[in-house]
């Protein structure tokens, strides 16, 4: 590890005493960070990792902080060994799963994945076949927010560089550095919970202080809906 070539690793830790102690099980990847784990319907374990060391690793050109697709890893032996499944792919017309801090959930209606900047997205796959062939379908949360909240509160909307569908990859963006992400009025993190029976709760922020005068500040919105993602209006 050195200043021009950082080293990251995602490891699996295991507990057999309800979390009182933990032991190392395996290394998922030595080229990733910020991981999420879920068991698939076919018994495999799936790990989704962030991978965006742009400007630091020769095969990833672009400014530091450049956003690249998530990477996926699979285990068929309870996490003892892992197979790299490549960069994640989106369905035709959908931006691929990408960004920071992924969260993956299995629901009765399929699989749900989310992450933050750039843009605010929710991706869905109905089954493992969809996962294997890379057919994730994106729901643009920022666009949904603008349609519901922005219609009545112009200062509460996201700017076009946050509601992005074609310019999501900062490496190839006309923006300087990671400005496309940094000028979006959000910290770029999304919280996702499965409440049972396919009901999802998704929460995200809007940095109102970037577009409103004080004393307005950061606002958190939550969207509740069913899988597949038929969302209802955000609530502050």
Give an account of the 3D structure:
It contains three helices and 14 strands. It is mainly beta. The chain has one domain: Tachylectin-2, Chain A. The strands form four sheets. A four-stranded antiparallel sheet has the order 3-4-5-6, with no helix packed on it. The protein has a four-stranded antiparallel sheet with strand order 7-8-9-10. It has a four-stranded antiparallel sheet with strand order 11-12-13-14, with no helix packed on it. Residues 1-5, 172-182 and 229-233 have low confidence and may be disordered.
How would you concisely characterize the structure shown here?
The protein has 236 residues and is mainly beta.
**Overall domain count:** 1
Shape label: globular
Helices and strands, in order, run as EEEEEEEEEHEHHEEEE
The helicity comes to under 10%
CATH class category name? Mainly Beta
Distance between the termini: 43 Å
Round the Cα radius of gyration to an integer and report it: 18 Å
Q: Which structural class is indicated by helix and strand composition? A: mainly beta
Number of strands: 14
Let me know the average pLDDT.
79
């Amino acid at each position: 590890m050195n200043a021009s070539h950082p080293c990251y690793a995602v490891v699996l830790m295991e507990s057999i005493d309800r979390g009182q102690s933990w032991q190392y099980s395996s290394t998922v990847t030595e080229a990733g960070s910020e991981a999420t784990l879920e068991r698939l319907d076919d018994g495999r374990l799936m790990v989704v990792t962030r991978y965006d060391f742009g400007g630091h690793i020769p095969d990833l050109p672009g400014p530091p902080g450049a956003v690249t697709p998530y990477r996926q890893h699979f285990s068929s032996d309870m996490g003892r060994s892992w197979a790299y499944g490549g960069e994640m792919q989106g369905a035709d017309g959908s931006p691929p799963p990408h960004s920071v801090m992924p969260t993956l959930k299995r629901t009765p209606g399929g699989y749900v994945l989310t992450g933050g900047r750039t843009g605010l997205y929710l991706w869905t796959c109905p089954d493992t076949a969809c996962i294997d062939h890379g057919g994730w379908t994106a729901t643009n949360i920022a666009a949904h927010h603008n349609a519901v909240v922005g219609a009545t509160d112009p200062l509460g909307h996201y700017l076009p560089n946050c509601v992005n569908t074609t310019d999501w990859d900062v490496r190839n963006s006309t923006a300087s550095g990671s400005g496309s992400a940094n000028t979006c009025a959000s910290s770029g993190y999304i919280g996702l919970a499965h409440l049972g029976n396919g009901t999802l709760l998704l929460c995200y922020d809007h940095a109102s202080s970037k577009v409103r005068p004080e004393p307005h500040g950061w606002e958190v919105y939550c969207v509740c809906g069913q899988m597949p993602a038929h969302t209802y209006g955000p609530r502050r």
